[in-house]
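User: Just a sanity check before I run the rest of the batch. Below are the C-alpha cells for the first item. I only need the designed sequence back.
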C-alpha cells in the first residue's frame, strides 16, 4: 500500500465511525510542506450537506485520530483544513519496508492490460528527423514505465512504408533509369528528396507517382521488388538510429502489413451501411457536431488506400491478432485531428469495442527562432546528426583518456551522457509543450539536466564505495533507518512519494512526472548529505542508517533514469578534475 493509501485508510475509518461519507476522506500532499506532510479538506466539503460548521466536523475527525502514534501532529487550520505530520518512527518504518522491496513500494497494476504502444513512426526513404526522435524518446520511456507498473506491453514502430512517397521514389527510379538495387540509404533519401521536389512543381509527375503507388499497392511485381529493397535498407538504418538512442521495439510492422485488411475495412463499412461513394472515392462521414469534420477517405478514386485506412486496419489487426486492450499513439500534436478522425471512424465501424484508444500529441522541437528545428542550411535536422552534435558537446567537458580510464571507457561515457542530455531535455517538461533545442543548456552538469542526475548518482556511488573500502560503515539487510534531522526526514518523505509519482506518470502518460520527481529527489539527497555527515556521524548506527538511505536513494535514481531510458554510469568524469574525479 502506498503511504497515501495508508493515511487515507486511517481517515476513512474515522469518517466511517462518525457516519461521514468516506468519499470525502481523501488526503493529499500538503499545500504547505513546511507546516505538515498531508492534508484532508473533507470537513469543508461535508459542511454544506451536513449543515454544520466545518471546524466542528474537523474537530470530531481529529478527536478520532489524535491518538494514532503514526501521526506526530494533527491540527485544524483555517476554516477546517486538517493537517497531519507523520511521526519519525512511522516514516523510518516505511523507509525500511521500501528498502526491502524489489520495486521500492511501487504497486503492481492490479488489472494489467495488453497495451500496444505505437511510437517512432519513421518513414521509409525519408531521413529520420527530430519529430521521430521525440516520438521514440517519449514512447521508450512510457514503454519501460508501463512494463514496470505491471502491464503487458508490445511496442510497434508502425513504419510509414505504403503511401505516395513510395510511389514518388519508384517513379523517379524508373524515369531516371536508376539501378535501385545498388542504392544505399543516403542515395535513396536523395532520390526521394528530388522526386518530392519534382512532384511539388509538376502535376503530371504527381499524377504518375499516384498511379505507381496504386500499382505497387495492387501487387505489381517489379514495383514490389524495388519497394522491398528500399524498405529493407531503410529499416536497417532506422534500427541503427534507434539503437544509438537506446530505443527498442518488439514489432517492426508497417502500413504495408495491413494492406489486405484495408480491403476488409471497406467491406465492414459497407456491411454497416456507412460506406459512401463520393466523387470516385469511398468515404465514411463523421458526425459534424458543432464543427465541420471532413469525412475519412478509405479508398481514393485511383484505388489507393490512405493514411487513415492503414491506421484503421492496423487497429483491427492489433485487436484481432495481438489482443490489444489499449493502444496509445505518440506523434507530433499536428496529427491530433488525424487521430480524432481515425478513432471516430473506428468506433463507427465497431472493430475495437471496449479498447481504449489514446493519442498523445507532443509539441515540436524548435530552433532558437521558435520554428521547428532545422540544420544550418535550413534542411531538416536528421536524428543521427543530432546525436553526433550532442556527443561533440559532451566531449568538450570530458577528460583525455588515461591509464585508469582508457579511450573505450571515455567514448562510452560520452555516449551515455550525450543520450542522457538529449532524452532528459525531451522528457523534462510536459509532453504537450515543445522546447527549444539548445545543447549548451541540456548538456550542462548542473541544473535540471540528465548529466546532473548522472553526477548525483555517481557521487552516491563514490560515497558507498569509500565506506565499503574503509569497511567501518558497511550496511546489511538488517541495518535500520532512523531519523535524526530535518533533511533526513525530507529525503525519506520524498522517497515515500515514489509510488505516487510512478502511478501518476502511468495514468497521465507523462514521463515528465518522473523527471520532476528524479530531480527533486537528487536535490533532497544533496541537502541531506550536506547536513548529515556519514564518516563523522554521532554513532555507528547513525552512519549506517545514513548509508542505507543513501543507497536506497541511489537505487531509486538509477531506476528513475532507467524508466526515462537513460543509463547511469558508475563513475562520472569531468575535464580538469582529478583523474579519479569521483568526489564531485
Ligand atoms: N509515419 C508517420 C509520420 O512520420 C507517423 C506514424 C504514427 N503512427 C501511426 N499509427 N499513424 O508522420
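Assistant: Here's the designed sequence for the first item:
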Amino acid at each position: 500500500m502506498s503511504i497515501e493509501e495508508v493515511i487515507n485508510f486511517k481517515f476513512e475509518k474515522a469518517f466511517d465511525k462518525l457516519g461521514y461519507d468516506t468519499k470525502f476522506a481523501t488526503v493529499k500532499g500538503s499545500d504547505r510542506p513546511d507546516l505538515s506532510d498531508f492534508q484532508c479538506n473533507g470537513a469543508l466539503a461535508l459542511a454544506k450537506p451536513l449543515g454544520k460548521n466545518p471546524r466542528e466536523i474537523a474537530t470530531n475527525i481529529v478527536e478520532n485520530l489524535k491518538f494514532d502514534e503514526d501521526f506526530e501532529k494533527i491540527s485544524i487550520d483555517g476554516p477546517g483544513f486538517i493537517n497531519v505530520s507523520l511521526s519519525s518512527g512511522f516514516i523510518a518504518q516505511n523507509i525500511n519496508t521500501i528498502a526491502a522491496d524489489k520495486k521500492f513500494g511501487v504497486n503492481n497494476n492490479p488489472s494489467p492490460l495488453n497495451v500496444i504502444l505505437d511510437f517512432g513512426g519513421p518513414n521509409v526513404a525519408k531521413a529520420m528527423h527530430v519529430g521521430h526522435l521525440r516520438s521514440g524518446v517519449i514512447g521508450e520511456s512510457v514503454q519501460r514505465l508501463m512494463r514496470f507498473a505491471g502491464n503487458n506491453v508490445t511496442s510497434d514502430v508502425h513504419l510509414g512504408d505504403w503511401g505516395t512517397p513510395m510511389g514518388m521514389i519508384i517513379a523517379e527510379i524508373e524515369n531516371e533509369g536508376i539501378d535501385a538495387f545498388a542504392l544505399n540509404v543516403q542515395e535513396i533519401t536523395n532520390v526521394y528528396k528530388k522526386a518530392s521536389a519534382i512532384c511539388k512543381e509538376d502535376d503530371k509527375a504527381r499524377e504518375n507517382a499516384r498511379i505507381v503507388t496504386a500499382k505497387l499497392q495492387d501487387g505489381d511485381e517489379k514495383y514490389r521488388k524495388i519497394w522491398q529493397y528500399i524498405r529493407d535498407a531503410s529499416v536497417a538504418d532506422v534500427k541503427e538510429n534507434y539503437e544509438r538512442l537506446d530505443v527498442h521495439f518488439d514489432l517492426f510492422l508497417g502500413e504495408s502489413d495491413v494492406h489486405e485488411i484495408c480491403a476488409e475495412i471497406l467491406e465492414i463499412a459497407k456491411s454497416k451501411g456507412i460506406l459512401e461513394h463520393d466523387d470516385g472515392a469511398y468515404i465514411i462521414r463523421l458526425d459534424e457536431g458543432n464543427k465541420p469534420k471532413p469525412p475519412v477517405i478509405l479508398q481514393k478514386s485511383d484505388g489507393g488506400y490512405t493514411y487513415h485506412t492503414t491506421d484503421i486496419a492496423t487497429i483491427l489487426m492489433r485487436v484481432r491478432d495481438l489482443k490489444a486492450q489499449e493502444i496509445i499513439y505518440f506523434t507530433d500534436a499536428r496529427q491530433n485531428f488525424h487521430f480524432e478522425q481515425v478513432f471516430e471512424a473506428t468506433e463507427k465501424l465497431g472493430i475495437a469495442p471496449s479498447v481504449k484508444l489514446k493519442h498523445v500529441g507532443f509539441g515540436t522541437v524548435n530552433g532558437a527562432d521558435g520554428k521547428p528545428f532545422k540544420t544550418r542550411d535550413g534542411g531538416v535536422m536528421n536524428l543521427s546528426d543530432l546525436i553526433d552534435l550532442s556527443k561533440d558537446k559532451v566531449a568538450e567537458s570530458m577528460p583525455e583518456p588515461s591509464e585508469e580510464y582508457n579511450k573505450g571507457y571515455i567514448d562510452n561515457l560520452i555516449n551515455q551522457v550525450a543520450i542522457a542530455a538529449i532524452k532528459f531535455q525531451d522528457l523534462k517538461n510536459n509532453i504537450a509543450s515543445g522546447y527549444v533545442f539548445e545543447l549548451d543548456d541540456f548538456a550542462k552538469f548542473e541544473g535540471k539536466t540528465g548529466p546532473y542526475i548522472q553526477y548525483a548518482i555517481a557521487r552516491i556511488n563514490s560515497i558507498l564505495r569509500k565506506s565499503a573500502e574503509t569497511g567501518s560503515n558497511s550496511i546489511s539487510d538488517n541495518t535500520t533507518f532512523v531519523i535524526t534531522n530535518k533533511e533526513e526526514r525530507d529525503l525519506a518523505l520524498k522517497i515515500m512519494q515514489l509510488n505516487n509519482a510512478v502511478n501518476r506518470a502511468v495514468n497521465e502518460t507523462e514521463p515528465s512526472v518522473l523527471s520532476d520527481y528524479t530531480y527533486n529527489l537528487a536535490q533532497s539527497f544533496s541537502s541531506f548529505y550536506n547536513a548529515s555527515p556519514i564518516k563523522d556521524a554521532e554513532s555507528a548506527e547513525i552512519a549506517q542508517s545514513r548509508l542505507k538511505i543513501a543507497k536506497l536513494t541511489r537505487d531509486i535514481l538509477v531506476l528513475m533514469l532507467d524508466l526515462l531510458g537513460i543509463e547511469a554510469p558508475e563513475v562520472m568524469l569531468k575535464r580538469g578534475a582529478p583523474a579519479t574525479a569521483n568526489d564531485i
